[in-house]
Structures are given as structure tokens and as C-alpha cells.
């Protein structure tokens, strides 16, 4: 069903392109092109049913080419928004045949495999627990067993706290047992200093609520990622801005009683492609030597929604699997592997190309829904579109052309700089109880 919708949309776009390029072929607007695409498909099906596959418009030979032209020419007598001459129909048949060689054929193949059960459910790339919850919400309209959700919302910031409590919830959500806090700030990309400070303060509060550190606790912050690749450099950028105190406190415990500085050390292990060593292995060795009470790992994430890129902060106490959002499997940085509690902090900075195409088609479907009479069969068809199946189809079609393409905003340099200041400000405030936020702000200037 979804494959048909995508096929009709692609066909409508092709018809609009043909109308622009070819004299003797015109179609009025996208709605008219969509209606024409449906009618042409129905007529083609009728021709094939009556005369057989050899004369079908889908046939690649001369007979198929001529029958396709006839179908296109006859469609103008059914759809008033299309006007075609015989020459226009012949030329349109050629272009449609070329386009059909690529996109719709792939969709038909995928539909066949899906119906046979030969394709497993594709994992939509996301590191965010809130997105995992949204993907399965339709199956649990009231509540997900073993999952507690608490939401706080202000004018600019929405904080969602998800607690996964049972193994049943783990199986449903695809995330381990633990706490997941998400700060959603749609205006975070804007250069609003006041908003950034407010986000940093809220972030500090959530860190303190998750950690509950004692006064003499030692914390190690790890900046994951590749400092040579801007979208992946969030972790190292945050480490640069932290107030490091472990060496000072080790030398003078007495000098720390008045200011109440936390013992903080930090480093960036780089990535496997630079060091030849798994980040997890480096971290494991350093933790064994330093013996911190808490590890905080910061990494850039992948999202399944363009709207959440650079506008969402996730905090969890379940650790992190570096590279999982973009399909790289690396050693997990978790309490089980390190022997100490691990807090994971991340902000999505990339989406994959199929996600962008998926969001674009979602906007197109929303437009069609708005222009379609409520309650009609076409309206109900659009409303019942399965999002996971749609993403699967798009990925199958687009992957041969773009491969494993990841996309990031063009202003990512300034975005990463702003985000690193927000996270560093919140961490400095949360991990050094004797320092005020205003003092932290002056330190970061």
C-alpha cells in the first residue's frame, strides 16, 4: 500500500517534469499530476489485464512503448487537468520508461520481498530514547509496560524523563534499563545567549539529579569523537572548556575546603582511525589507573528527525555505544565494562540521507492530507501510512545512489561551538558545587 503511494508521488513529479520539458504535454499543478499518475496506472493495469503482459505499458519493448503512449494520450479524456498531443504522448512514454527503469522497479521488488517476509525490519538510525519511544508508541497508545514518563515543559524547553524499569520494556524499547533525560529546545540553534544560559542551568540540574555525587567524589569526563570532523567534535570541544581540578586538589586538599571544588579530570581518546586503538580500550586503561567514582562520556549522536539535530540534549545513566547511530559497532562504555557508573551525554548533529527524504515525503503527505476531503478513501489511505515501512522503502530506493550518506547543517562550526559551551557550563556548575553559574560563564568567556 505504501509502495503505491510513493510510486504515485514519484510518477506525479515525473509528469510535472515532462510538462516542463516537452511541448505537446501539459499538466496543471501537483494535484492534477498526482491524479493523472493514478489514472495512467489504472489504464495500464486494464490494458495488461485485457491484452496480456506482452502488450503491457510496463513491457520494455517497442510494443510496450507504443501501448504506454496510447495510455498517456487517452488519459486526457478522463483527467481534465492534462492535455496531450500524439507527439507529446510518445515523448512522455520514453521519459516515463526511463524513470520507471529506476525508482518504481526498485519499489516493486521491495514490495515483493516484503510480502514474502524476506526483509527484516530496518532499524531507523537514532541514538535518542525519546525517538525509540515515539516509534513504538502507536502499538501502545496508553502506556508502554515497564516504562515511566515524566514531562516538564516551559516556553522554550521541554524536558522528558523516561525510566525503563523491566526486561519487557527493554525488549520493546530496544534500550537498556535506566534513566533517560531529554531536553528539547527548538530554538537552540539561534544565537540567543539568554536561552543558552537557561538551557545550561537546566542541564546542570538534570546532571546533579542523576549523579548524586559526594563532596570528595572524583569525576572523569571523556570527550568522544573525532576532533578533525566538525559534526563529530562535540566531545573534544567540551573537554577543552572544562575546569580541570584533579591535579590541584591532589596537591592541596586544605585549599579546597572553602571553594568546594570537585575533583575533575578529562581527556579525549580520539577515534580508531587516528589512534589504531578502540576508544573503549583506552578509556578502560585510564579508568583502571585513575579510579574515578564516576565517568561522564560525551558524544555526538545521530537522529531520525531533522528537527532534533542540534536542538536536543540526551542524558542517561546507561553508558554509551560509540558510533552506533551511524552503523559503527565499537566497544561499549558502560558500568559493566569499566567498573564505575557511567553517565552518557549526547546531542544529535547528523541525520542520514534516507531520513531527510523520509521527512520530505512526510511534509508532502501532510500537504496532501490537508488538501483532501476528510473521511474520503484517499484521505484514510494517507492517514494510515506506516512510517517504518515508508522509511524502509525509501532507504532501499536511495541507498544504491548515495550509499551511507550522513548530512549535517551548513553552520555546524558555530553550532558545535555554542553547544560545547552549553554542556561545559552545565558540567562545571554541576561538578563544582562551590562555583556559581555566573563564575562559570566568566570562565568560559
- Kindly state the percentage of residues in helix: 40-55%
Provide the domain count.
2
Strand content: 5-15%
Element string (H = helix, E = strand): HEHHEHHHEEHEHEHHEHHEEHEHHHEHH
Low-confidence spans: 54-60, 103-124
The main β sheet shows up as: 9 strands, mixed
Radius of gyration, whole Å:
28 Å
The tally of strands reads 11
Outline, from the CA principal axes?
elongated
Which class of the largest domain in CATH terms? Alpha Beta
Description:
With 445 residues, the chain is an alpha/beta fold. It folds into two domains: 2-116, no CATH class; 129-354 and 406-444, 3-Layer(aba) Sandwich (Rossmann fold). It is built from 18 helices and eleven strands. It has helices spanning 2-21, 29-51, 62-75, 86-100, 103-116, 129-136, 167-173, 193-211, 234-240, 246-251, 272-275, 279-290, 335-338, 353-371, 377-383, 387-402, 412-431, 437-444; strands at residues 25-27, 82-84, 147-153, 158-164, 178-184, 218-223, 263-267, 294-302, 312-316, 342-352, 406-407. Strands 3, 4, 5, 6, 7, 8, 9, 10 and 11 form a nine-stranded mixed beta sheet that branches. α2 packs across α3 and α17 packs across α18 (437-444). It is elongated, with a radius of gyration of 28 Å. It starts with a helix and ends with a helix. The relative contact order is 0.12.
Amino acid at each position: 500500500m505504501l509502495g503505491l503511494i510513493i510510486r504515485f508521488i514519484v510518477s506525479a513529479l515525473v509528469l510535472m517534469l515532462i510538462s516542463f520539458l516537452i511541448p505537446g504535454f501539459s499538466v496543471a499543478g501537483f494535484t492534477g499530476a498526482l491524479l493523472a499518475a493514478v489514472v495512467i496506472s489504472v489504464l495500464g493495469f486494464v490494458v495488461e489485464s485485457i491484452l496480456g503482459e506482452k502488450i503491457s505499458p510496463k513491457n520494455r519493448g517497442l510494443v510496450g512503448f507504443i501501448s504506454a503512449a496510447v495510455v498517456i494520450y487517452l488519459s486526457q479524456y478522463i483527467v481534465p487537468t492534462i492535455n496531450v498531443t500524439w507527439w507529446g504522448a510518445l515523448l512522455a512514454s520514453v521519459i516515463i520508461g526511463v524513470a520507471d527503469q529506476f525508482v518504481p522497479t526498485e519499489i516493486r521488488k521491495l514490495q515483493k520481498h516484503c510480502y514474502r517476509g524476506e526483509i527484516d525490519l530496518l532499524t531507523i538510525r537514532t541514538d535518542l530514547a525519546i525517538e525509540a519511544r515515539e516509534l513504538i508508541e502507536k502499538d501502545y497508545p496508553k502506556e508502554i509496560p515497564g516504562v515511566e514518563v515524566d514531562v516538564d515543559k516551559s516556553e522554550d524547553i521541554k524536558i522528558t524523563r523516561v525510566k525503563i524499569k523491566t526486561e519487557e520494556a527493554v525488549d520493546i524499547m530496544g534500550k537498556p534499563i535506566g534513566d533517560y533525560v531529554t531536553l528539547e529546545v527548538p530554538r537552540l540553534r539561534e544565537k540567543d545567549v539568554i536561552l543558552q544560559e537557561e538551557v545550561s542551568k537546566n542541564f546542570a540540574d538534570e546532571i546533579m539529579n542523576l549523579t548524586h555525587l559526594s563532596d570528595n567524589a572524583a569525576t572523569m569526563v571523556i570527550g568522544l569523537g573525532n576532533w578533525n570532523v566538525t559534526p563529530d567534535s562535540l566531545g573534544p570541544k567540551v573537554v577543552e572548556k572544562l575546569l580541570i581540578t584533579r591535579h590541584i586538589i591532589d596537591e592541596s586538599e586544605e585549599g579546597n575546603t572553602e571553594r568546594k571544588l570537585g575533583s575533575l579530570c578529562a581527556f579525549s581518546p580520539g577515534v580508531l582511525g587516528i589512534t589504531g586503538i578502540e576508544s573503549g580500550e583506552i578509556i578502560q586503561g585510564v579508568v583502571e589507573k585513575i579510579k574515578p567514582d564516576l565517568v561522564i562520556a560525551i558524544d555526538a549522536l545521530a537522529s531520525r528527525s531533522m528537527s532534533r539535530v542540534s536542538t536536543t540534549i540526551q542524558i542517561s545513566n546507561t553508558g554509551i555505544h560509540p558510533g552506533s547511530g551511524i552503523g559503527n559497532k565499537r566497544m561499549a562504555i558502560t558500568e559493566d565494562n569499566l567498573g564505575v557508573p557511567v553517565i552518557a551525554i549526547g546531542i544529535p548533529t547528523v541525520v542520514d540521507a534516507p531520513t531527510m527524504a523520509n521527512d520530505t515525503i512526510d511534509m508532502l503527505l501532510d500537504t496532501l492530507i490537508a488538501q483532501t476531503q476528510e473521511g474520503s478513501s484517499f484521505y484514510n489511505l494517507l492517514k494510515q501510512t506506516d512510517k517504518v515501512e515508508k522509511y524502509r522503502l525509501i532507504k532501499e530506493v536511495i541507498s544504491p545512489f548515495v550509499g551511507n550518506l550522513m548530512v549535517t547543517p551548513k553552520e555546524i562550526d558555530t553550532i558545535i561551538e555554542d553547544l560545547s559551551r552549553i554542556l561545559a557550563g552545565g558540567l562545571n556548575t554541576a561538578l563544582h558545587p562551590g562555583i556559581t553559574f555566573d563564575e562559570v560563564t566568566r570562565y568560559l568567556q
